[in-house]
Amino acid sequence: MNGIAYRRYKKIGDTVYSYAPAYAGLNPEYDAMKETVYDVGYSPVEASEWYWESMYQKLFVPQILKEIVVDKVETKTTPAQNGKVLVGTKPKVQVEVLPYQTYYIADDTKDYGYRIEIGGVDGQKITTTTYVLVGQEAQANEPSIRQEAAIDKVVTLGTKVKQAQVDLVEVRTVYLDDQSLEMGTELEKQAGSQGYTMRTVTYRLNPETGEITETVTDVVTPMVERIVLRGSKSVLIVETEVLPTVKDNPNPLPKAEVVQTLHKDPVTTAEQPILTATVSKFNQGTAPSSSKETALPKTGSTSGLALSLLGTVLLALGLAGKKEVE
């Protein structure tokens, strides 16, 4: 019965597939199941083939009886040999690690973020114990100790102070009128300077942990205004006219008239007042005449200035007339 190819079965998922070698070559799909079903499958007939084989032998093959007869007994003696016991005397080596220490150092010439490490190697303590055989026991000798020193690690960190100008404020120019300067002129009274905030960042190193603490300090420098003086001096033009003496009134009062005109400043484009005064004066035997002169700088309001100047002119003319009468 040996050599017969039985059908084998294989359950894949919920489906049981079967493959019989007698149908090999039926189609490519069937032949592909040889590896997935037959080679790994199970055949109940094939599994019980040994039983049927044994039954066949018992039923149909004659039994052959064998008898063993002892003719001679020989005795062989092997002499005893001394045993050997091995006792371990291999040296024992113990290594103890000596950890290195870490030190942190601040360098105020290097920027924040700079880091360099030197060293950092563990040391070792090596203990070696040797043994000597005494009788049937190994006895330890005095251990020898060799020590290699650790190389400490030195970490250098940058802690350089950092400064920078922030929050810049541009210079503002302020113009002030100055009556002592001629109209159209400018004079810088004060040079301005830019405002800013000086930010200082300092770093402090903890030598034990290597932690760096940052401190920020701001110092504010205010902006200084630029002051420019602009001329605002007013000009007064006085015109005098000498008239003949009136017969009925030998000492008539002179007539004065003040006229205000506006003049545009070529620099500031602002209109500035100019006062013009006309004064009439009587004088016997002389022809009419006129003159102009520049008054003092403007003070107070325009109307007050006009009255003040008019009073000054009249006083001057009155004194002059009095002198002529004398």
Short characterization:
The protein has 326 residues and is of the alpha+beta class. 15% of the residues lie in helices and 40% in strands.
Secondary-structure map:
Elements: E1 8-12, E2 15-19, H1 28-31, H2 33-38, H3 44-47, H4 49-60, E3 92-98, E4 102-107, E5 115-118, E6 123-129, E7 131-134, E8 137-140, E9 144-148, E10 153-158, E11 162-169, E12 173-178, E13 186-190, E14 195-205, E15 212-221, E16 226-231, E17 235-243, E18 255-264, E19 271-282, H5 302-325
Parallel strand pairs: 4-10, 12-16, 17-19
Antiparallel strand pairs: 1-2, 3-6, 5-10, 6-9, 7-8, 11-14, 13-16, 14-15, 18-19
Domain G5: 155-234
Pfam family, one: G5
Keywords: Signal
The helix content, as a percent range, equals: 10-25%
State the oligomer. Answer: single chain
**Looking across the biggest beta sheet, what order are the strands in?**
3-6-9
Poorly predicted ranges: 281-303, 319-326
**Secondary-structure element pattern, one letter each:** EEHHHHEEEEEEEEEEEEEEEEEH
**Structural class, please?**
alpha+beta
Strand content: 35-45%
The major β-sheet equals: 3 strands, antiparallel
Distance between the termini: 181 Å
Mean pLDDT: 75
Number of domains: 4
Rg result: 65 Å
* Shape estimate: elongated
Number of strands: 19
Number of H/I helices? 5
Describe the structure.
With 326 residues, the chain is an alpha+beta fold. It has four domains: 15-60, no CATH class; 92-102 and 114-155, no CATH class; 162-230, Resuscitation-promoting factor rpfb fold; 234-325, no CATH class. It has five helices and 19 strands. A hairpin with a 2-residue loop joins strand 1 and strand 2. The longest helix has 24 residues, at 302-325. Residues 281-303 and 319-326 have low confidence and may be disordered. It comes from Streptococcus danieliae.
